[in-house]
Amino acid sequence: MGKRTWPRPRPSRTFAGLSLMPRIGPIELPEFPLLLAPMEDVSDPPFRALCKQHGADLMYTEFISSEGLIRKAAKGLKKLDIFEAERPIGIQLFGGSEDAMEEAARIAEAAGPDLIDINYGCPVHKVVSKGAGACLLLDVDKMVRLTEKVVKAVKLPVTVKTRLGWDDKSRNILEVAERLQDVGIQALSIHGRTRAQLYKGPADWTLIGEVKNNPRMHIPIFGNGDVDSPEKAVENRARYGVDGVMIGRASIGHPWIFDEIKHYMATGTHRPAPTVADRVEAARQHLLTSIAWKGPWEGVVEMRRHYGNYLKGLPNVKEVRLRLCTEREPANIEAILDEVKATYAEADVA
Q1: What whole-number distance in Å separates Cα of residue 6 and Cα of residue 81?
Q2: Could you give the residue range(s) of every CATH 3.20.20.70 domain in the chain?
Q3: Where in the chain is the domain with CATH 1.10.1200?
Q4: How far apart, in Å, are the Cα atoms of 29 and each of 50, 164, 191, 213, 287?
């Protein structure tokens, strides 16, 4: 796959002290990296471009079915698209077949990412029912075999994202972490919930901290779950010692969270909240890059799920969102966004 170009983001802030910088194979990250979580139907190239622009240090594609990839399904192949300005970036795979995951890893490697990530954390039924995602937490032996197959199939670093366990009676992340490290993964991201919890209830970071502070562990450990403010990122770093945090839902409609956390860590103060104009322009950029990547029809339609997040809190937002979500012409959508910016420029909705 040839090089893809994308609007250049601002360079990431660098940190002093090489010994403090976590590494994933040859990939050197900042002292406390902020990762964009892979999210289905969210973390595509247009959204990733915004998050990179606003401070994300490491990002991942939407997760890709290994079975679909080896069958050359169009949806899976499209998700392999990566752009030079996004680096470092990982392609995330999921599946329950060792052979399919091995072959899919080779296909993904050929697309030119910086790493391959395996999803052992997705809790949704359509994934779990196929023996993939969080289902592998019920069969750690198979998880280890599958992981080892992928590690041996590619030259790139392999990482894993998973959960604490299947349910409260089987929180086996300590065993999982050690065994996956033993077969060669080079970083581990842990969501602080079990599969049974889905996304309900507060994330429990206690076991994430135990994994990080296990003297047997020497790979970077990233924590995920409920990091929706600078204070939570700093608290989790101080309390649990994680090497970085992965941010998912809190970035949807608010890619500024990465810059906000970095600013708070550096100064102890908060950045001003994005203005209405900032939010409108982010929505516009998201729309235009979505059209550029997906085409005029699909780009317009798939952008509709995002407007409510960018414009959250505005007066009469439902009416505005309805107009944006029923308009088909990009120029008319931009005109509505201009109208929003002009109408609500002075609104205190931060």
Answers
A1: 11
A2: 24-267
A3: 276-343
A4: 19, 25, 20, 20, 30
CB 275 within 8 A of CB 254: no
Beta pairing, strands 27-28 & 23-24: antiparallel
Q: Domain 276-343 - what CATH class?
A: mainly alpha
CATH topology of domain 24-267: TIM Barrel (3.20.20)
Q: What is the pLDDT of residues 9-33, one digit of tens each?
A: 223 333 333 336 899 999 999 999 9
Inter-helix orientation angle 330-343/276-294, to 10°:
170
- pLDDT tens by residue, 33-73: 999 999 999 999 999 999 999 999 999 999 999 999 999 99
Chain mean pLDDT for the chain: 92
Sign of the dihedral defined by the CA atoms of residues 205, 202, 32, 147, in that order: positive
H helices of the chain, in order, are: 45-53, 66-70, 74-78, 98-110, 125-128, 140-153, 173-182, 206-212, 230-240, 257-267, 276-294, 296-303, 307-310, 317-326, 330-343
Please list the active-site residues. Answer: 122
